[in-house]
């Protein structure tokens, strides 16, 4: 069966609304062991730090990049810019200053040294950072990019910030306390009965033949799949009830940690094709989904699982 981020204490695995069933801690954490107390952190200061990094390093370079400011990492579709690197450095300094003893897992730092990912398995609080999610959009002058920051501890995502500076959007989620967009509470709701489901999927430029084959199972009646843009903004679209689900075949923590909590706190659901929680540390059965509600998640995962 399919699960939404948690296995019930009875041992049964069932898809449930993740607003009512919070994400499970990393296996190995002692039952009942407390996670980080967010009261020790000034959450408003975190938001200010995210805004400041974008204002200093990203916004001034939007539509102003020179050719030498853009570098290919793993191919022509995998780009990094000077804005990505400088914004991540800015956030690394400011976020660790706000929470002494914390560590940062940033996309660019991991690209330079994969051992940075080891922090996700440790006991220190971890900031998970994607400085410019949707770099391709950023490079092409498309405002559909965002900065993603999530705070995790022992495998639990506790808070997240999704900031789209060119669109004037700041979405914030706190574990167990709901989600807001520009200060207004978010509720994902449910698709209308019988409506065609709008589903964002892994972009074909970033999928291999096997991933394309599995995702093609969504090309069926009642579902309208399309390639995703910025992953962070697709999660925000779900939380706003603007699309119905995502189906993604990659698991980088910086792409998903913030958005999964955002959808969770907006009342949505999530699950993997193996009936296990999505783990920010990796090792997930793919693809996985996040959706406006449990019924939609179950439908998407049923189709994806049938391809295996």
UniProtKB/TrEMBL annotation:
Residues 12-33 have a biased composition (Low complexity). One of its GO terms (biological process) is signal transduction. This is inositol-phosphate phosphatase. The keyword Nuclease does not apply. Mg(2+) binds at residues 107, 130, 133, 255. It catalyses: a myo-inositol phosphate + H2O = myo-inositol + phosphate. One of its GO terms (molecular function) is inositol monophosphate 1-phosphatase activity. PROSITE patterns: IMP_1 (PS00629), IMP_2 (PS00630). Residues 1-33 are annotated as: Disordered. Transmembrane segments: none annotated. Keywords: Hydrolase, Magnesium, Metal-binding. Its EC number is 3.1.3.25. Its cofactor is Mg(2+).
């Amino acid at each position: 069966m399919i699960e939404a981020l948690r296995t019930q204490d009875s041992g049964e695995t069932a898809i449930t609304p993740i607003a009512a069933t919070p994400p499970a801690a990393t296996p190995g954490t002692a039952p009942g062991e407390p996670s980080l107390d967010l009261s020790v952190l000034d959450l408003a200061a975190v938001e200010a730090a995210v805004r400041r990094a974008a204002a200093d390093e990203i916004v001034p370079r939007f539509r102003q990049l020179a050719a030498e400011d853009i570098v290919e990492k793993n191919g022509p579709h995998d780009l990094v810019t000077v804005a990505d690197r400088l914004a991540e450095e800015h956030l690394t300094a400011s976020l660790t200053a706000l929470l002494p003893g914390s560590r940062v897992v940033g996309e660019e730092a991991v690209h330079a040294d994969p051992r940075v990912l080891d922090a996700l398995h440790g006991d220190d609080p971890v900031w998970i950072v994607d400085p410019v999610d949707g770099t391709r959009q950023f490079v092409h002058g498309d405002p559909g990019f965002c900065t993603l920051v999530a705070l995790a501890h022992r495998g639990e995502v506790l808070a997240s910030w999704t900031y789209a500076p060119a669109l004037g959007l700041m979405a914030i989620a706190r574990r167990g306390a709901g989600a807001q967009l520009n200060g207004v509470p978010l509720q994902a709701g449910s698709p209308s009965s019988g409506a065609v489901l709008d589903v964002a999927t892994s972009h074909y430029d970033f999928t291999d033949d096997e991933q394309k084959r599995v995702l093609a199972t969504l090309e069926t009646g009642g579902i309208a799949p399309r390639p995703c843009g910025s992953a962070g903004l697709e999660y925000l679209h779900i939380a706003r009830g603007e699309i119905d689900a995502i189906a993604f075949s990659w698991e980088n923590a910086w792409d998903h940690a913030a958005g999964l909590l955002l959808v969770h706190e907006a009342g949505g659901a999530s699950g993997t094709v193996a009936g296990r929680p999505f783990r920010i540390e990796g090792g997930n059965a793919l693809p996985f989904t996040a959706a406006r509600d449990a019924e939609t998640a179950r439908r998407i995962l049923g189709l994806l699982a049938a391809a295996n």
